[in-house]
Amino acid sequence: MYSIYHFFEHLVTNKEEFVLKNPLDEFPFDSEMLSCKNRGIFPDLAIKLNTDKNIFSGGELIELKNSKSYNVSSFNSTIPTGKKEIAKIIKGKNSIIKKQMEDAGDDINSLPIRDVYYLIRGRTKENIKVILVHGSFFETIKSADLISQSFGQVLNERLQEKELKIEKNVKDLLMNIFSEQENFSKVRNVDKASVKLRFRIMTEVRTEGNILDTKKYPDILNNTINLIIPCHNEQDEELTAKRFSIVCDISQFQKLKIKHHLNGYFTVFRQDLFQ
């Protein structure tokens, strides 16, 4: 049986490794619970699926984020989200991720929508924070809305510079067209051009979403390891606590709730790194 809770338990068991200055991808992850491990492509890690998904589905996708400060490092090419369609990650029969997952014994399509987590390590000269956080912490609006509204700002700026006006329905259409990240990941060939063009999206975390920021999120203490999961209602909180207690000795952790400045409450399970 595998899940993000089992993954976190493994991190806690080996938490002394986080104190070392080794890259996160050199952490001794338990390969038995992983269906894939990669470098430079999303996801960095994926947890194996469970046949019985009643309590733990498994299949979570994990991206590693290492920072030499208390700022979450930028997300290159992939906008952070709480869930992803596995079909948008596995493209083509020759997909490396697809082959790894199949070799690990996963029935990939049995869980088409996957939860996404980010394993973040931040450092100052004297302190460390380790955080395994659900991607919804960074996804306060849908990715499509983020992209389209960003392009809307560009469009407004250019219209003002050119002293032009367009109808609202035309503007809305243009913003809707430029709303899917997949459209930017393709290489474009232009007649008579000696180069190819591909746009990449880089996402940077604002202060409100910087889970490492001590002033914004004072309950995420220095020299602690934390699991952070959405808590939208009492049922979410109870289910999260139940799942956690099945895997971990909950008496060894501090359980608390924090409020995201833009996205509601999250449950935190916290332990000292040097405990």
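The above is record 1. Record 2 follows with the same two-line structure.
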Amino acid sequence: MKKILMVLSLIFVIFITSGAGYMGTLPDIDAEFSYLRKQSSENAMAPYTVEELDKKNEQELRNVPRDNDNYVDIIIKKDKTTQYLKDVNSVILILEKLRRCLNTDQNIQKFNAIVSNLIDNVEYIKQEYKDKPESNYLSYARLIYVSDSARSVANYRMQGARSEKYIPYTSSNNIYTKETTEKKLNDLLNNVNETLFILKNLE
């Protein structure tokens, strides 16, 4: 009996190890799970093209809140020049007002008030930083230049307004012509734009 059981056990082991097994058709795993690969690939694709992302960012970006002290203190702060940046930021706000005035309004009183504010702020920076490393910055020199230019144009316009009563525009002795005034204002506008670009890139 023991011999019969041993023979049966041996036949069973040989049957198992001889490669016999399931003889049916295996499922097509690639086909069954292809939808998962497709879904994963679609999820990995960027939701926007580069052009669409640029347009979306342009629409969502807000103007820099330069009138917010927290922005100046936290966002654009640099340890060595924090106070200088805050002082420059004040001038940026004034220059932006001056640019709007030059673009939209020819009112001499409003123009002179903004220029006077600009001159005062730049004079403070000039005196405050003249013996400090900041005096070597391009922004420092540019502030003084735009302030002097604005003062010159303001004086020219005031003199022109006073001379109107005595010298007609058509006179050959009149140096305060409309064309000359417009050129000076346009030159100042270009100066303001260039200065703003330099100051805003201090960040």
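Residues 41-46, 56-62, 76-80 have pLDDT under 50 and may be disordered.
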